[in-house]
What does this fold into?
Amino acid sequence: MSEMKTIHSLEELEELAEVLREEQKSKSRITVCTGVACSSLGSEELAKELSEESKNLENCEVKKVGCKGLCALGVLVEDDKNMYHSLKKDDAKNLLAMMEGTQESSEYILSKDIPFYSKQKKIVLENAGYIDPDSLDDYIAADGYKALFSAISDMERSEVIDEIKKSGLRGRGGGGYPTGLKWSTVEKAIGDQKYVICNADEGDPGAFMDRSVMEADPHRVIEGMAIAAYAVGANKGYLYIRAEYPLAVKRIKLAIKRAEKFGLLGENICGSGFSLKLDVRLGAGAFVCGEETALLSSIEGKRGTPTPRPPYPAESGLWGKPTLINNVETYANIAPIIRNGGDWYAKIGTESSKGTKVFALTGQIKNSGMIEVPMGITLEQIIFEIGGGMALGREFKAVQTGGPSGGCIPRDHLNLEVDYENLKSVGSMMGSGGMIVMDESSKMVEVAKFFMEFCMSESCGKCVPCRVGTVQMYEILKKISKKDGTRKDLALLEELCDVVRNTSLCGLGQSAPNPVVSTLRFFKEEYENLLVESRCHISISKEA
Amino acid sequence: MYVRPKPPSDDKRFKQLMREMKRHGYARNSLIEVLHSAQEAFGYLEDEVMKFVALSLQLPLSKVYGVATFYSFFTLKPQGKHTCVVCTGTACYIKGADRIMESIENEYGIKDGDTTEDDELSLLSARCFGSCNLAPMAIIDGEVAGYLDEDKTLKWLKGVLYV
Amino acid sequence: MATKQVKTLKIDGMDISSIQGSSILEVAREHDIYIPTLCFVEGLCAVGSCRLCLVEIEGSGKLLPACTTQIYEGMSVITNSEKLLKYRQMILSLMFAERNHTCAVCVSNGHCDLQAMLQILHMDHIKVPYMFPRLKVDATHDRFVMDHNRCILCSACVRVCDEIEGAHTKDIEGRGIKSNIITDFAQNWGDASSCTTCGKCVQVCPTGALSEKGKAVSEQLKRRSFVSYLKSMREDVL
Ligand SMILES: Cc1cc2nc3c(=O)[nH]c(=O)nc-3n(C[C@H](O)[C@H](O)[C@H](O)COP(=O)(O)O)c2cc1C
Ligand code: SF4
Ligand code: SF4
Ligand code: FES
It folds into this structure.
């Protein structure tokens, strides 16, 4: 890297990539997962030991990489041939012996043919777990920044947008708004200054896809943003990242610095006159700031309260200027689409939802971890094939998607093909991609109460229905779960759900009733069994 | 021209904070970034610090206070010597985060957000660190403690407190 | 300056034309069509927070606040329907239940916008349980009193103090149900050095939350026309 200079053209970039790939081929590589889960199991120590121990091996390189996905079986390490699992921090010597074939390894080798890997399709995560997130070389060797440079040098802005439109990509931040359409609105909006923003607030509790993408492959997000900025005509951008993700912040900041140093960001990129300055802004623990207008207020240094839309940020966003806001995963899809073409992408997925989706699979499931699957895969395949079924041998009860804005899907709908519309049709939503599997021990009223408590304490307090309505609903749920609720309380709860959903100012309030509505739809008997009246009824009939 | 205020004391951390504000060009919209730096330097947002920030950035006092109290990442109370942040996100909740919280509350007689009287331990909660695979988990003095149960949590705390 | 375009639309079936950039509420008021409001004050930025002015737009399932939604060509607005009334009644119920509105002992009894809204929406009871929070009364200011029990967090006082008076003495602390109006550093109003004692906040407050000291209940009538007057004066200067 030291002899690397500013890259001025696509040709220079491709040449460099070729050189770097040759260099990599000449070495054997051991990659150690240092994602959150593996780190907490001592993967950092293991990586250090491995480097020490392998020092005198010729042409061997130990790399710390981002999350390899199957967190439940950490620490994961991979060499050119095999993936090894369930390693401990002091396993370095054993592992090297296994790799050399001088030690029995079968119980540590993880076949790549298991459904956990074979049923996945990696686009967003294609580099995750293979490249060193802090190395620009690694990213360039993996065709990094090629899409940006070819867009700038060979494509008109409108062509870039057309390609995204063709791909059918929809926003991965929850709403599923067509990305190409959003880009063209911003492109058409009149303004001397435009902004691009990456929404990395990932507030949905139980979701960590965006975090993993930023930690495992930060340049991919930056490249996506840069292509977007070129397409819509923006020269300044912000990544709004949760303060709870310090490592992601560090990696993204470093990636920006490196990209700037080599002319991949900054002034006059690729000699085209196109410039882009990116900056990081920290969130500060407010779920509502994931909502785009609240996010804008927060970047402006204010209380993160949403403002009514219209006007949409595309027309009047940051400081009143046209602003493009997309999610981390949305941006992470852009470079591959430009590299391989929109048609290629549109071949994956369902009629209405194209491409893949990354999910954070957690809860009472065996293979908890991070997965990327094609749209249209069924819930059953995700949970029982990729996920390996329920942990502790318990019965499946429901799967929660969409976080506090989503719902619980019962076993009758396990054959549902996952896409935006289908999830909505069963009262849930795609959301950002948290998927929490619950077994028979979960009580649905408690689950609804949990999410309502969340919405209540995350409400910004600006509008009445959400500020007061969520508290009223929470109190009723509390009453019912303590077996103090009556049929009248339940009726009031249902009325409140309707009012809060239809009258709240922003998406937080509008979707806050969803977990209640969905559990009422599929598990109403659990509510009714807790009502006080039914007990009264019995006691009266006894007396009579 | 507006004369920016002098730091209220010659505590080095104020100098540091001034440099940070200067780096942002004293832009009013950098308030949240500046509060982050202030909290990092001082451990929490003291009144004196917030007032200094307000004056330096030429922002109304009520606005700074309003922003600082809107975001739950900011704390206006000093923290204990040790902190335990229990994750109360969905995955952790499903796996019993509430019981872990309760066991700490009972053992140390403090509630979520409180600090023990002897300033040893502050108990906090947070919504999801994105480490759901380790559920239920907590962050104790900056270190990730995963796959917790009541016993394991209390043992872990005993290992760091009063030593 | 370019002349503003005229847009034609329907409100409650009536054909209306008005200039581009006007809000539904402004246009409705020009034509004496009543839409209930509590957080809107003429001359201050509209925030759309009380949600009482929600109206239906034909062909769109979503309800939109009349105070912040601009008119567009061909839109058809319904300002009153059974559905809207039902929603408005519940929203007003939520407002009443949030804090302690005991009208009989309130300084604004008889000329309070919140109280009047009960009649306008034909309500004789509140649909949700009262929450009875314990809140303070700040009587430390020489001339004014802030009774948090009566506050509906409409933010009119915050806006007038910032946008018109330019003092920004008031703001909101906390979030969600813990939101609260503060003066300066969340200190007693009497100690808030930025307050100019202009009293504009008292005038725009729709309830008895802000009142003048030493005035009888009958004298607590509020005057608001100064806000749009001052705003237009200021625009002329600029
Ligand atoms: C309460 C609330 C929270 C949200 N949180 C997030 C979030 O954490 N991350 C995100 O990307 N989008 C979030 N969104 C969606 C954003 O408002 C916005 O639609 C999205 O960032 C647009 O990007 P996309 O088109 O790429 O999905 C949230 C929306 C609401 C209403
Ligand atoms: S719906 Fe809730 S979060 Fe959204 S503006 Fe209203 S109070 Fe704030
Ligand atoms: S004090 Fe009055 S004007 Fe201010 S927010 Fe409360 S009700 Fe509105
Ligand atoms: S007047 Fe429009 S929301 Fe209050």
The first strand of chain C starts at residue 6 and ends at 11.
